[in-house]
Automatic annotation (TrEMBL):
Domain Mechanosensitive ion channel MscS, residue spans: 182-250
GO biological process: cellular response to osmotic stress
Name of the protein described by the UniProt record: Mechanosensing system component YbdG
TM annotation in the entry: 20-40, 69-86, 98-116, 137-157, 163-180
InterPro entries: LSM_dom_sf, MscS_beta-dom_sf, MscS_channel_2nd, YbdG
GO cellular component: plasma membrane
Topology in the lipid bilayer: Multi-pass membrane protein
């Protein structure tokens, strides 16, 4: 720059003007070199690297290109050139060098962050990532590196050693604990979740406190992302999975059966002993033929042995329509192709209430998929609600307006006529 400045002075430029002109020319020259270096690195070097990575034998290597690691790394080249030419501007050398070093540190942090993200992307391609996610640990490393990078930037701008700043962190430990409280809790929670295998990506969890009811799509340092069945996304703090209770349906999915637990409410006024006609009718039902024949013989022998008389059924044992219906349901479910016969299968009575007598079905479907499970369950109850009348049983429901209208009959339909007197 001094040579250019002297040349301008020889060209009869004023010394001050020659100084600023030479400085401007040097800045333009450095800028031109930076532009050329950036162009060469992006259009030549990065293209060669991209071609090599794309044609490599490692298919996961292309994930480095997805995160643009080399593109970010190319930004360091102009900063190095500016730092090297800072000596040509002695009046601003210190400012230029500090600015260039700061830029290099920032770019380095961006490159390191992109590398960490790439490592997580590659790890997620393996099956173990569902049971042992590392995203939380990568975020911890990222926070540590960003903190150290911030200290390097501050120490570079202040012109002091980073050790001086590190020595002051001890006094700020309480403040740092407060600032990074969620991150520290999330780190501890992540370790416990992974060690105890409490949740995995893809698990169906239910956490009413946070409105979460769906599949886990991401586990990070601070949050667990749950996609609900209505396609909304719920963010649950990681440490909440340790401190609060939640339901994980993974056990159901791995067991090979999905539970049916639903009741049919029967009108208690329709419960009665089976008549001879009812018994003959039940014998014609495939699932009850053997049962009715066996029970008739057993009851007859019992009543004869203990001198019970059939004139009054209260004095002996008799079959009831509610019992027949319960046995029918039991045998129907045992022969149903959609019910898992290796798991619990119960048909039981629950305590009667003002809504009638509940007959509860407790069974498991073979297909754990939601759509298939609901279809099998609906088919079963469609059938049972339709056949209840065959056992002279009535399904209970609260009276509707049509029921009241039928009960009152003509009282509502016919208008009241008044005779006039006088």
């Amino acid at each position: 720059m001094k040579y250019v400045q002297n040349w301008l002075i020889e060209m009869e430029f004023a010394p001050v003007l020659a100084k600023y002109l030479s400085m401007t020319m040097m800045i333009l020259f450095i800028g031109l070199i930076c532009i050329m270096a950036n162009f060469i690195s992006k259009k030549v070097v990065i293209r060669l690297i991209t071609h090599f990575v794309t044609n490599s034998k490692f298919p996961r290597a292309s994930m480095v290109l997805k995160r643009r690691v080399f593109d970010k790394l190319s930004h360091i080249v102009p900063a190095i050139i500016i730092y090297y030419f800072a000596t040509t501007l002695p009046d601003y050398q210190m400012i230029i060098e500090k600015a260039a070093v700061t830029y290099i540190i920032v770019v380095g942090l961006m490159v390191f962050q992109a590398l960490l993200t790439t490592v997580n992307d590659i790890y997620q391609t393996y099956e173990i990532s569902k049971t042992k996610p590392i995203k939380g640990y990568i975020q911890v490393v990222n926070i540590i590196v960003l903190t150290l990078g911030g200290l390097l930037v501050i120490s570079n701008l202040m012109g002091e050693s980073p050790l001086i700043l590190l020595s002051g962190i001890g006094a700020l430990s309480a403040v740092l604990m407060l600032v990074f409280k969620d991150s520290l809790l999330g780190l501890v929670a992540g370790i416990q979740l992974a060690a105890n295998d409490m949740v995995r990506v893809g698990d169906w969890i239910e956490m009413p406190k946070y409105g979460a009811d769906g599949n886990i799509i991401d586990i990070s340092l601070n949050t667990v992302m749950v996609q609900n069945f209505d396609k909304t996304i719920t963010s649950v703090p990681s440490y909440a999975l340790i401190s609060d209770s939640f339901i994980n349906w993974r056990g159901m999915e791995s067991s090979g059966g999905r539970r049916i637990k639903r009741s049919i409410l029967l009108d208690t006024s329709s419960i009665s002993f089976c008549s001879g006609t009812m018994l003959e009718k039940c014998k014609q039902i495939h699932y009850l033929t053997d049962y009715v024949t066996h029970k008739e013989r057993e009851i007859s022998e019992y009543n004869t042995r203990f001198e019970m008389y059939e004139e009054n059924k209260v004095n002996g044992r008799s079959l009831t329509n509610i019992g027949m219906f319960r046995v029918y349901i039991q045998n129907y479910l045992k022969s149903h192709p959609g019910i898992n016969q290796d798991m619990t299968l119960l048909v039981r009575q629950l305590p009667p209430s003002e809504h009638g007598l509940p007959i509860e079905i407790y069974a498991f479907t073979k297909d754990i998929r939601w759509e298939a499970h609901e279809s099998i369950q609906s088919d079963i109850f469609d059938h049972l609600l339709a056949v209840a009348s065959e056992f002279e049983l009535k399904v209970f429901q609260n009276p509707t307006g049509n029921d009241l209208k039928s009960l009152l009959g003509d009282t509502i339909s016919k208008p009241v006529r008044y005779r006039s007197v006088g």
